[in-house]
Amino acid sequence: MQLELYKNKTWMHEINPSFKLLAMVLLFISVLFIHNINVMLNLTTLLLLVYLLMTGQTYKLKLLLLIPFVFLFFTSAISMVLFGKGNTTWLEFGLINVSEESFYRGIHLGLRSLAFAFCGLIFALTTQPVYLFYSLMQQWKLPPKYAYSFMAGIRLLPLILEEFLTLRKALIVRGVEQRGGLLNKVYFYSIPLLSQSIRRAHRIAVAMEAKRFSNQKNRTYYYELGYSRMDLWFILLILLMIALSLYLGISLPYVPVTDVRFSG
């Protein structure tokens, strides 16, 4: 699955992973301080275009990954629309109080959730975990024992899932799946999975020690990662998206609301 996921590479795959992580974190923080719904709509739309055009995956996979986040948009928006505060009431029924302020605030909250989702998807679909941790060790001087621990943990997740599915089929064949309550099911699954994980972790530790893995700072790496002009293009792309969103949101607003925060 990992090989298929990163088979179609774009220029965003060539960006230094740790630099991309830092840029995405700063973009996350920037989104938190955007309270203009017009600016947020523009930025979310631009992030969607980057996600659809520059991640290198098939459109079927991209649209499939969007389904849970579209659901998140509606749930986060509706909760704020129906139960938010506001002065200009549109609909009031029991605990439900839909106002103009709560409506725009709910849409803004949903757009912010989508912006976070697009940032995460762009990073996940264009960054290989192995390269990320190698970059963290080389550029950010992350201790190798932590980096290799995370890499080993990520590698083990598909194996644990495969063991879980195999164990589930075995329990169904033996008729154990239909007996007992939740606690019994937790017992039947947790003990074998935990014991297998401990054995596998021990074998990995022994293998790494046999291959002379250590925590020394002066070490060699199989992958040598550095900075390139792609990093510059990436930060320019982010700055351009933010600037264009601000300019269009202020100069050509879609709705006459510049701040969705409720002032009472």
UniProtKB/TrEMBL annotation:
Keyword Nucleotide-binding: no
Transmembrane segments: 21-51, 63-83, 114-134, 232-255
Coiled-coil region(s): none
Keywords: Membrane, Transmembrane, Transmembrane helix
InterPro entries tied to this protein: ABC/ECF_trnsptr_transmembrane
Entry's Gene Ontology cellular component terms: plasma membrane
Compartment(s): Membrane
Topology with respect to the bilayer: Multi-pass membrane protein
Protein name: Energy-coupling factor transporter transmembrane protein EcfT
Organism: Sutcliffiella horikoshii
Organism placement in taxonomy: Bacteria, Bacillati, Bacillota, Bacilli, Bacillales
